[in-house]
Amino acid sequence: MQSLNVSSISFPSSIALGKGDLLGQEGFCSSRAEFIRTAIRNQLDAPGGAVGQTVTRRSMFMEALVCDREELEKLRARGEGVAIRVVGTVQFGEDITPELALDIMELLQVLGVLQASLQVKQTLTYQMP
Q1: Is 48 left (phi over 0), alpha (psi -120 to 50) or beta?
Q2: Residues 48-87: tens digit of each pLDDT
Q3: Nearest CA among 76, 111, 78 for reference residue 96
Q4: Rounded CA gap, 20 and 26, in Å?
Q5: pLDDT of residue 99
Q6: CB-based burial of residue 97 (10 Å sphere; 0-12 exposed, 13-18 middle, 19+ buried)?
Q7: Checking DSSP bridges between strand 61-67 and strand 105-115, what pairing results, if any?
Q8: Apex CA 79: angle with CA 68 and CA 61, to 5°?
Q9: 3-state SS class at 6
């Protein structure tokens, strides 16, 4: 897992930091930084929490989505398009051409990682709203 390095975080209240210090003194966490990491992790991982509610409200897919050429060609043959909203990873197979991706893609929103050939990435980046 890739680690995010944040040099400073600003809080609207010193009370929150004081609570973190108190929990550190009581042995619930080793430091103020650990308190902040734990609080953020708990918010992101909470079932039914803000992330889960937002994903549901926006009709988004969480985790990883793999798009293969065969399925995309079936969609194109039927004249259908697809709107993809993902929190996580979207992977387009190396055999998917920019033209195929553009023909069927009505919307592509990836909050995370887009894995595709450079040509597909460039085409979708410039063409998607």
Answers
A1: left
A2: 666 655 554 455 666 788 889 999 999 899 888 888 888 8
A3: 76
A4: 10
A5: 94
A6: middle
A7: unpaired
A8: 45
A9: coil
Q: Which residues pair with 110 in a beta bridge?
A: 86
Provide the β-strand partners of residue 65: 90
Higher pLDDT pick, 28 / 17: 28
Q: Where are the beta strands (DSSP E) in the chain?
A: 61-67, 82-92, 105-115
Query: Residue 102 has which token pair?
Result: 């553009």
Place of tokens 């930091």: 17
Please answer whether residues 94 and 117 qualify as being in contact, where contact means their C-beta atoms are separated by less than 8 angstroms.
yes
Kindly tell me if the per-residue pLDDT of 2 is higher than 50: no
Position of tokens 């929103």? 109
Helix (H) / strand (E) containing 115: strand 105-115
Residue with tokens 């042995």: 27
Single pTM value for the model = 0.53
